[in-house]
Write a structure and sequence with these properties.
Layout lengths: L6 H6 L5 E2 L2 E2 L15 H7 L4 H11 L9 H16 L3 E23 L2 E2 L3 E2 L6 E9 L16 E5 L5 H10 L4 E5 L19 E4 L1 H12 L4 E23 L10 E7 L9 H18 L7 E7 L7 H9 L2 H6 E7 L16 E5 L6 H12 L8 E3 L5 H6 L4 E6 L18 H19 L28
Parallel strand pairs: 6-7, 7-8, 8-9, 11-12, 11-13, 13-16, 14-15
Antiparallel strand pairs: 1-2, 3-4, 3-10, 5-9, 6-10, 10-12, 14-16
Bound molecules: ligand BES and zinc ion.
Zinc ion binds next to helix 7.
Length: about 475
Amino acid sequence: MKRKKTMAALLTAGLILSVNGAYAKGPEAGVPNTNAASAFDNKIIKKISADNMYNHIAYLSEVPRQAGTPGELRGVQYIESHFKQYGYETEVQPFPIYTVVRNNVSGLLEIGGENLKPYVFSGSYSGEVTAELVDVGKALAGTVPDSVKGKIALIERGDITFVQKVQNVFDKGAVGVVMYNNTGTSNEFGQATYGQNIPAVAITRAQGLALVEKLKNGTLTAHIKVTGSGVEEKTSYNVIAKMKPNKNKDTGQVVMIGAHHDSVQNGPGANDDASGVSAVLELARVMADAPTDTELRFVTFGSEELGLLGSYHYAGTLSADEADRIVAHFQMDMIGSKDAGGDNKANGLIMYTIDGKKNLVTDLASAAGDRTALGEVVPYGQLGRSDHQPFHELGIPAALFIHSPLEPWYHTPADTLDKIDKNKLQETAEIVGASVYQIARPDTPALQHSRVAPQPVDYDFENRPPGA
Ligand code: BES
Ligand code: ZN
């Protein structure tokens, strides 16, 4: 029979400190906190080594890990090999990413001997076509005439996306796109995507309306030539490590600990986010032998910097049942900078949730902050911008652990190893490790019977923008 750790059960156990803002009295409410870590915490946190984390960051930040580059793959292989070494079942999950190429782009649009000097759509296919121009209005779905087959579509901007418009005429066999603006005097707009293998260019509203008028009185032939533009497909990866709980004591639930391993282009990403990856690896190491009744799932995501692509991909591969079994997602992103956090309390550490509300993750971690190296409760705030977002959207309690305000090296080539603070790494890893173990260890929620039950804490919302 499966034993579910419901919110109510954890609340009774003194593990969840608030539900809807109402605080439950813990077993020793009112007793001043001594900051002493519980015996349970010690099983995990005593083993955490900031030196190990530092060494992971040293290796990972030797080369940039931009998604889709050999640098990412080098990091992925390092991460997977360490998970394996610690005894985890691992999976490297590839997914495609698409990057716009703009390399000495040139665009030509000749109609009646005149070059209209068009703007080349971002991602436009490079190619040369000469064909009759057909006015297809706004190219809304279901309105594009079959007669556009083999022709160049003249389209008015507006109502639906550029990509949808290009797709609608592409599907009807058009060989090129000329789009005119729906306002103003600019021709700088437009976007096409992977697989839309026809050149697409933009012109001003005045140019477009003139063509529409001419087409009423006869046919026009257009010549488009685009070079240096396109969309490239590359592969990025998520790295997943699982540890199943003790067979005879399995709640069926899953706790996730995540970070992103990709960096920005030319950024060594020591803090963003080799720091988070280093804590994921170190927690995987120290928790590998811990007795649990909950599955531990450690994941490093690719392509976070391109718009949380890896975490969305991962979330999209979860069945409804699997998503239901995930009870918490702890995301660590930028947890080790000497120069972040200012003089805020908790050494600048903050837990951001998508909705700005407390949840299981923030409740457990704020209390853990008080019992572990940091020695203080951790405040929370509201922010997205990292891989906790897709988990929140699945209804999973999730939070981002980060120091705020950000360091000045954020997303620069100066995000290097020498800016890393081992104390911050240690504090954050202890907090996440102790919190995860609260959920995963086999004796909870029977915790109310224990003398070492954690103290409930009160912690505050902070309207603290990250900066940058
Ligand atoms: N580590 C940052 C996210 C971040 C920055 C979180 C500041 C909180 C405060 C992350 O890698 C990043 O740069 N994210 C992008 C957003 C993403 C959706 C492309 C960002 O914030 O610009
Ligand atoms: Zn990041």
